[in-house]
What we know:
Layout: H1 14-26, H2 28-32, E1 36-41, E2 44-50, H3 64-80, E3 88-98, E4 106-116, E5 120-131, E6 134-148
Antiparallel strand pairs: 1-2, 2-4, 3-6, 4-5, 5-6
Amino acid sequence: MTSSAPQTKAVLDPQVAQAVQDSFSRQQAMSLIRATMPVVEAGLVEIHLPHWEGVQQQHGFVHGGVVGMIADSAGGYAAMSCTPLGASVLSVEYKLNFLAPAKGQALLARGSVVRHGRSLIVTQAEVFAVEEGKQTLCALMQQTIMVMQGREEKS
Length: 155
């Protein structure tokens, strides 16, 4: 049975949003592949990646390892958006299914929190290939994140 009551959206503390953005900025792997994170909400982030020659595999699709990178980061930052200031997060495992070739002008990874616990957070990420405005689901990930209290990231 489903509830017909309207769902209220959690408001993200601006300091937590800034901490998430600052962490993303420190992640050199994301800048290496030219990824950006324009959406940060409570329990949800989006990472955008332009399709360019440096992330392609031999058939011209975005390499599966790169798809995994943005899915992992999207899930991780969605989790981080739900943790207190001063805590950091670390992926413990993830399962990634490729559903279609990662082709098009860009990829969009949308990470969201499925269940938030005190020490473990389960997330999912959907990765879409964007071609001429049409989004095609190309990968689906489920992930477990460990919350590390009092362990700030390196500057």
